[in-house]
Amino acid sequence: MKSFILKLGLFIAVLGVGSLRARALDGAVVIANSSVPADSLSADALKDIYTANTKYWDGGQSIIIAVMPDQTDAAIQQVSGMDANTFKTFWKRLMFSGRGKQPKSADDTASLVALVASTKGAIAIVPADATLSGVKKIEIK
Amino acid sequence: MINKYHAHKLVLSITASILAGCGAQAYEVALTGINTNLPSLDFHGFASQGLLASSQYNYLADNTKSGSLKFFEAGVNVAMDPFPHTHITAQGFMFDVGNVGQYDPVLDYGLIDYNINDAFNFRAGRIIRPEGIYNAIQSVDLARTSVILPQGLYDSRWRDFTASLDGGSVYGDIGLGKGGDLSYEIYAGMVNLAQNGGVARWLESSLNSPYTKYYGVNGFPEVGGQLWWNTPLEGFRVGVAGYQAFRFSYDYAAYNPFYPLNNHFAPLTGCVDATEGMLSLEYVRKNWTFQAENRIQYYDAHNESGGQTVGSHTYSTPEAYYVGAAYRFNKWFETGTYFTEAYTDLNKINGPTTYQSDWALSLRFDPKPWWVLKVEGHYNHGTGLLNDSFSNPPANQNGDGWFMLAVKTTFSF
What we know:
By secondary structure, chain A is an alpha/beta fold. In chain A, 44% of the residues lie in helices and 18% in strands. Chain A has helices at residues 2-24, 43-50, 73-80, 84-96, 109-118; strands at residues 28-33, 40-41, 64-67, 104-105, 122-127, 135-140. In chain A, strands 2-6-1-5-3-4 form a six-stranded mixed β-sheet. The longest helix of chain A has 23 residues, at 2-24. Mean pLDDT of chain A is 84; it is low at 11-23. Chain B has a single domain (4-412), classed as Porin (Beta Barrel). Helices cover 8% and strands 55% of the residues of chain B. Chain B is built from three helices and 19 strands. In chain B, strands 2-3-4-5-6-7-8-10-11-12-13-15-16-17-18-19 form a 16-stranded antiparallel beta barrel. Chain B is globular and about 65 Å long. Chain B starts with a helix and ends with a strand. The A-B interface holds A 44, 48, 53-56, 59-62, 69, 81-86, 88-89, 92-93, 95-99, 101-102, 104, 120 and B 26, 39, 42, 44, 46, 75, 77, 79, 81, 83-87, 89-91, 109, 111, 113, 115, 118, 123, 127-128, 136-137, 139-140, 142-144, 173, 175, 181, 183, 234-235, 284, 286-287, 289, 328, 331, 334, 369, 412.
């Protein structure tokens, strides 16, 4: 019985973690500029990028976050733990104190994909049904 | 020649025009035209104009009982990443709070930041000091709910003392697995004080007597650090910070009938070693933000004449804390409140000039992503933070409650 409860707990924990990760990218995918050296990221590594703990790709290229206000807010909240206003304020604080570069923004999905395609080191979260051109898809493990 | 006191209106007008004309986007200037492979420059900026009005005392500005517009700040920021792992950025800043700042342009920060890995990095140049939740962003009105931060911890007039220093820092973020992560920064350098900064004005006011003459303040070395623990509870962080300022000094003269020169005013140097510690708690959950901070300082002061100590050392222990909360209703409206108390010396609390408390209620409106408007009320007791005996004669100060209204609008790009 004790073993069963332990296994059940473990199963629920794994399911919970799995669904958390699935929710983080539910209906969205991560894309990056073709210059970005990474092809995949862990969920923690992605969070470190969106919370400014990681500011450079391997090799030293600057990470440029691109966002689409309103439309990517939910996905960014799931990744960073910050709602849209908190996220915006967080990056303004960093930028105006010389500690980071403010995310670039685009008005629609096509513009966001184009922005990522043309900006070295750029990363963005876009709707899963977005037409991707000139960018690479980053697998989240 | 442009009158300095009208310069801010010019800056505000230009900024507003740029914002209106260009949709408040940040500027990115490519350097390809000058035959270089350097990456583009990013420009951002802000300009704020405020109104201060108070019921009984002149606070922060010198004539707030009649309403004062001498409450202004503006900054322009430029950044680039010229090489791998390297970030260069600088911010020019000007402000005016009463008779402090006076629209003189200053280099807020100008630094080179080199990244080794997430856990270990360097900054060098004029760097912003990390201390608590707000010290590094005191100048950035749009990054907070309130107009006026709790003044016992973040005095608007003392920016030259608290905001930046010329030197360097090491910083980084260390993951703790399921324990969250630690972010740290340790710094050292020289603090440069302005002769029209808050410390200078306070000393000028304090030494305003027939028996003393104030001359000026001097820079001093300082070391310090900030440690944040981002706990496993999403949005909850705990911070500790501290610094040691070595021999902050100011020059003045005191009447001495036996001193033969200078009309019997003998030159003296006031010297202060300052130690500070701060504890910070912040919890951001959904639309709520909760904050609490406590700061305690220890001052060891003495006078010198010709390099020799005159008289005995004096000691004081100022302390201040606040607790606050803010709630965002939607994209364009947020409200917040805080209660704060400050004591000029924990060991000498004896009358209204030795403490000040403040209940603040703030309303923040964001009509556009580039435009913020705030209205805020304050109900104060005590006068320990007035720091201005010129416009607030000490004999007229009492413990009655008094009000202050602060209104501020900020444009940014």
